[in-house]
Amino acid sequence: DELISQIAAGEVVERPASVVRELVDNALDAGATQVTLRLLAGGVRLISVEDDGQGILRDELPIAFKRHATSKIGSLHDLESVATMGFRGEALAAINSIADCAILSRASGINDAYLLDGRTGELKPVARSQGTTVEVKELFYSTPARRKFLKTDATELAHCIEAVRRHALARPDVGFAIWHEGKLVEQWRKCVVEGEPTDPLAALDQRLSDVLGPEFLAQSVRVDWHSKQANEYGQPALRVWGRAGVPDAARSRADQQFCYVNGRFVRDKVLTHAARSAYEDVLHGNRQPVYALYVAMDPTRVDVNVHPTKIEVRFRDSREVHQAVRHAVEDTLAAPRA
Ligand code: ADP
Ligand code: MG
Questions:
Q1: Secondary structure of residue 46 in the 3-state scheme
Q2: Which ligand has the minimum distance to the alpha carbon of residue 24?
Q3: Which of 34, 149, 199, 234 is the most buried (most CB within 10 A)?
Q4: Any idea where the DNA mismatch repair protein S5 domain is (predicted)?
C-alpha cells in the first residue's frame, strides 16, 4: 500500500510547489478565510499550510491520510491507472508516503485539537484554534534520486509562491501569507470586509493590484461580459470577467496570463488563443498580452481534469467558449477608455 502511494506520488509530486497546491486546495475546500504557508529551504525541508477552515474531527484524522487506501490494486495495469489518475482523493496519502507528515486540527464547534503523526499514526492532544495545519517535512527523503532533480531553494520557493498566487487571484475573499525561513515574503490581505456588502469586481481589482502590482491595474481595463442565452436558472450561460492589459502596457509579460474556469486556474489553448486573437489587430510584434480572465459556465459543459503537474480542461463546445472570450476581450479593448 505504501509502495503504491509512493509510485502515485512519484508520478505527480514533481516539486514542493505540487504539494503546496494540493494543501492550499484542501484549505480552501475547508472554507478557510486565511491561509498561511511556511517554508524552509524552498519547501524541501518544510511545507506547512495553516488554515482557519472547518477542521477535521478527531476520528476522521486518520482517514485523511488513508482515504481510498483500500487498495483494489492487484496488477501492473491497475497501478498504471492509479498513476495517470493523479491523486484525486489521495493527495495526502501520496504526500505522506514521500515525506514526514503531520496534521494538526481543531474542528468547528469542538474544544479539543489533535495532532496526527503521519508516520506512526500516533494521535495526541495539542492546543490550537479552529482550523487545520498540515506539515510536510523532508520531501523525497526516501527517494534521493528525485531530490536531486530539484533546483535551488530560491527557484523552488518561486514555484511555491506561484502556486499560491494562482489561488490568491481566484479568491480575493481569502487572505494569504507566505513565510520563508522565518521571513514574511508575500502577504495578500482579504479584500472583503465581513458583514459588509462587497462589489466582487472591486474586490478582484484590489487583489489583482496586490498580487500583480498597481501597474497591472493602471494599465488594464475591466472585462465584464456575459452571453445572451440563459441557463436553466435564468442566469447567463457563460460569463467572462476580469481585466485585460491595454496593448501598450509597458510590462507586457509572458508570465502574466491567468485564466480561470469555474474558479480553477487552468492552462488551456482555447482560452489563450481566444485572448490572443482579440489582441491580434492591436498588438504588434511578439508582445504578449497580459490579462486575468475568469470564465464561469455550466460545469457539465466543461471537464476539469486536475492533475498536479498540469491543469487541463476540455470544453464540450470549445467554439462557444472561444467566441465568448474573444468577444469579451475585444469589446473591452474597443470601448473608449475612461
Ligand atoms: P481530497 O481533497 O481529494 O478529498 P486529500 O488527500 O487532499 O483528498 O484530502 C483528504 C481529506 O482530508 C479531505 O477530503 C478532507 O476531508 C481532509 N482534509 C485535508 N486537508 C484538510 C483541511 N485543510 N481542512 C479540513 N479537512 C482537510
Ligand atoms: Mg485535496
A1: strand
A2: 1
A3: 34
A4: 208-334
State the chain's mean pLDDT as an integer: 87
**Residues 13, 98: contact at Cβ < 8 Å?**
yes
> Which pLDDT value is given to residue 337?
59
- How many residues would you count in the chain? 338
- Cβ of 22 closer than 6 Å to ligand 1, yes or no, is yes
- Contact between 329 and 222 (Cβ < 8 Å): no
How confident is the model over 48-76, as a mean pLDDT?
77
Residue 50 CB less than 6 A away from ligand 1: no
Given a cut of 60, is residue 76 above it in pLDDT? no
Instruction: Indicate which residue's Cα is closest to atom 15 of ligand 1.
Output: 64
pLDDT number for residue 119: 92
Cβ of 53 below 6 Å from ligand 1: yes
Q: What are the extents of the domains in the chain?
A: 2-188, 200-334
Instruction: Name the one residue in this structure whose C-alpha cell is 487583489.
Output: 207
C-alpha cell at position 305: 481534469
Does the Cβ of 27 fall within 6 Å of ligand 1?
Answer: yes
Which distant-in-sequence residues (6+ apart) come within 8 Å of 146 by Cβ? Answer: 10, 98, 140
Q: Which of the two residues, 10 and 133, has the higher pLDDT score?
A: 133
Grid coordinates standing for 3? 509502495
Summarised one tens digit per residue, pLDDT across range 229-255 is 888 788 888 999 999 998 776 656 667
Q: How many CA atoms lie within 13 A of 243 on its CB side?
A: 25
Q: In this predicted structure, what is the pLDDT of residue 73?
A: 41
